[in-house]
Automatic annotation (TrEMBL):
Keywords: Transferase. The lineage of its organism: Bacteria, Bacteria division CPR3. GO terms for molecular function: hexosyltransferase activity. Gene3D superfamilies: Spore Coat Polysaccharide Biosynthesis Protein SpsA, Chain A. It comes from the Bacteria. Residues 7-121 form the Glycosyltransferase 2-like domain. This is Glycosyl transferase, family 2. It comes from candidate division CPR3 bacterium GW2011_GWF2_35_18. InterPro entries: Glyco_trans_2-like, Nucleotide-diphossugar_trans.
Length: 301
């Protein structure tokens, strides 16, 4: 039942106060053949004491000598992994007890063309919990991933051979490293999906997902990296609009907003929506933000 070893990669930085929730959820897995590799990204809190309190031979602790970021920390863990499968956990999330059992059970029976599987999840926000239910997109999903990343990293389990084939996380990206990896992975293999809710994600105020500037910088890098594919699938303008809208939250970004909206219109010249938003942006960031608040639904169509 537990033939294949799974290596669980968990990077962490100054999260000792919530780290046990994530680790406990891994240690409670019904699938027992796993190793947990915790990569401490040079924390200054009592993270080491939290790890040592488990006294488990299945937990491997790696301390970075300097702060390298989440992407490189995951890469360090992957390079040390001995498992056939690689699973990812975040220090502020929680797996349900049958997560590995369900996903490995499917992957073990899959053919060589299948490289990964992701699952449904529950999200806990500031006010209420929601079940995140992506469409049941599976198989050759590269074109769908070009539209947007709908796969949360802690929901993913990957065959290590495919990770070695496509390369690891890009540490130059301040965010969206998971989307970048999935775009490369989906070119090389099929990715499966199970609609079972197998984990819960939490929003933390100190999470990198709360940092808008890092997102806009990373999105620009992704657009540059996959520009030909986005243009080919007529998605480039939509992503440029998304980039401009995220820039609208940053001060002194008016000229950049106008530039990216002009580029969006240039690549889809007959789409009047892009012409309209470009024209509105000429009146400055504040006017553009008012327009966004009133016509967000129109822009997202």
């Amino acid at each position: 039942m537990y033939r294949s070893l799974v290596s669980v990669i968990l990077p962490t930085y100054n999260r000792a106060y919530i780290l046990k929730r994530a680790i406990n959820s891994i240690m409670r897995q019904s699938y027992k053949n796993f190793e947990l590799i915790v990569v401490d990204d040079c924390s200054s809190d009592n993270t080491r004491e939290v790890i040592d309190s488990y006294k488990s031979s299945r937990i491997k602790y790696i301390l970075n000598k300097e702060n390298l970021g989440g992407a490189e920390s995951r890469n360090i863990g992957i390079r040390q992994a001995k498992g056939k499968f690689i699973a990812f956990q975040d220090s502020d999330d929680e797996w349900f007890s049958k997560k590995l059992e369900k996903q490995i059970g499917i992957l073990d029976k899959s053919g060589d063309k299948v490289g990964a599987i992701y699952c449904n999840l529950e999200r806990e926000g500031d006010q209420k919990n929601t079940i995140y239910s992506p469409e049941k997109i599976m198989g050759n999903i590269h074109e769908e991933l070009l539209k947007a990343n709908f796969i949360t990293l802690p929901s993913l389990v990957v065959k290590k051979t495919y990770l070695e084939k496509v390369g690891l996380f890009d540490p130059k990206l301040p965010r969206l490293q998971d989307w970048d990896l999935l775009l490369r992975l989906s070119k090389q293999c099929q990715i499966l999906y199970t609609d079972e809710v197998l984990l819960k994600t939490y929003f933390s105020k100190d999470s990198i997902t709360a940092k808008n500037e890092a997102y806009t910088k990373a999105l620009k890098m992704i657009l540059d990296k996959y520009r030909y594919e986005f243009v080919q699938k007529r998605l480039y303008s939509a992503h440029l609009l998304n980039l401009a809208n995220n820039l609208s939250y940053e001060k002194d970004s008016g000229m950049r907003i106008t530039y990216f909206l002009f580029q969006a219109w240039k690549y889809d010249l007959y789409n009047l929506k892009y012409g309209l938003v470009f024209f509105v942006s000429l009146f400055g960031r504040r006017i553009y933000n008012v327009f966004l608040r009133n016509y967000k639904t129109f822009l997202l169509k």
